[in-house]
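[audit] Reproducing an earlier prediction to check determinism. Same input, same settings, fresh worker. If the tokens differ from the archived copy the diff job will pick it up downstream; this log only records the rerun itself.
[audit] input (156 residues):
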Amino acid sequence: MTTSIIVPLGEVRAQDDQGVGTIFYSPVLEKWFKWVLMDTGTAAATPAAGDACGYLATDTDLHTVCIDESDCINVTGAGAIPNETGWTVPTDGQYFWMQVKGIITLSTTVGNTPGAGKTIGLSSTDEIFDATPAAGTQSCGYMINATTLVFLDCPF
């Protein structure tokens, strides 16, 4: 974990100006972030603030994320595209600060019978988390309400 960053939170870059895989805690936001590369996948999905991310199946270093679940390691939730006012949403091939821990409002209601207090994990549906993840799917946090408000706690 680093205590200082080169690329300000909320910015995206076409090149790795930060050091891919860098972890940063923001005491102001009370959230953890990881500097990663966005790959929109074979379907060229369009990222949105609050989308769930998984790690790209072909990236053994776990520094490239995707929202097209057919390209992801479906059992490993990576985090989410931050849903902060004024932050830039990454597009394909851009580096960005992905949120890995802390409260976030997701772009889409959690799937699989959501409810407050339920654990969440990466869904097999693009861009979302599921409540009560399937056996073998890694937990990535828990629900605060019954729709989109969650506390992320994804391994990094």
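[audit] rerun output stored. Observation attached for the diff report: The longest strand covers residues 95-105.
[audit] end
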